[in-house]
Amino acid sequence: SQTIHQWPATLVQPVGSPLSLECTVEGTSNPNLYWYRQAAGRGLQLLFYSVGIGQISSEVPQNLSASRPQDRQFILSSKKLLLSDSGFYLCAWRAGTALSGANVLTFGAGSRLTVL
Amino acid sequence: AQSVTQLDSQVPVFEEAPVELRCNYSSSVSVYLFWYVQYPNQGLQLLLKYLSGSTLVKGINGFEAEFNKSQTSFHLRKPSVHISDTAEYFCAVSGTSYGKLTFGQGTILTVHP
Questions:
Q1: What percent of chain A has pLDDT over 90?
Q2: pLDDT for B97
């Protein structure tokens, strides 16, 4: 069966420090991968998605970047964190077929980032 | 472009009462519709989905939703709620392209004893 892992689960970082959040998926190949951010009272915002190694699409301009160095690994990064980067970051995957929209999106447990 | 509106940010209800969480969407193409539940400090878990066919879909934990194309709605219902249903619920819509999911703002359901 497929599983998705995110780490770290909780992170407290000072403003201006770098960030790296990792997400890995097991039990599937060539998944579509997604990073969402959940800020208090603002629902879920899609930040990045990837349909293959090295292929990253950004949904909103921001201080963050994403990379997909391996088929089942998705990394969210920042060189210098801002206070506004605080939030709950969720990685998700779904089977990458021609009609991907019909496939269920499965989420990781999330990483809570607090920037002070 | 797609959008989702969840009409209620918070819904308080007493245990064993029925509940309806409302969701409306807009899209220029055919869509797939989903409801997810999020318990505190956890990821999202799928409750149910509408892809095609019967407009009434049943999900886990006794929840069901009805797709109404003319009203562009996908309301979530449960005939009798439990304390354990207290959580945040998200309605979401997806087109066919890359499977990007657009979420509503969420509805916090609080079940009181």
A1: 71
A2: 61
Q: Where in chain A does DSSP place strands (E)? A: 3-7, 10-13, 19-26, 31-38, 44-52, 55-58, 65-70, 73-78, 87-95, 106-107, 111-115
Q: Read off the pLDDT of each residue in A60-75 and give the average, rounded to a whole number.
A: 92
Q: How many residues does chain B have?
A: 113
Q: What is the pLDDT of residues B9-36, one digit of tens each?
A: 999 999 999 999 999 998 877 788 999 9
Contact B76, B62 (CB under 8 A): no
- Radius of gyration (Cα) for chain B, nearest Å? 13
For A7-43, give one letter per residue: b (16+ CB within 10 A) or e: eeeebebeeeeebebebbbeebeebbbbbbbbeeeeb
Q: Contact B19/B79 with Cβ under 8 angstroms?
A: no
- On chain B, the residues whose CB falls within 8 A of the CB of A59 are 100
Q: What is the pLDDT of residue B54?
A: 87
Nearest CB to A101 within list B90, B97, B103: B97
Q: List residues of chain B with CB under 8 Å from any CB of chain A.
A: 31-32, 34, 36, 41-46, 49, 51, 90, 92, 94-106
CB atoms within 10 A of CB B66: 16
What letter represents residue B88's amino acid? E
pLDDT of B29-56, one tens digit each? 778 899 999 998 888 999 999 988 889 9
Q: What is the β-pairing status of strands B10-14 and B107-112?
A: parallel
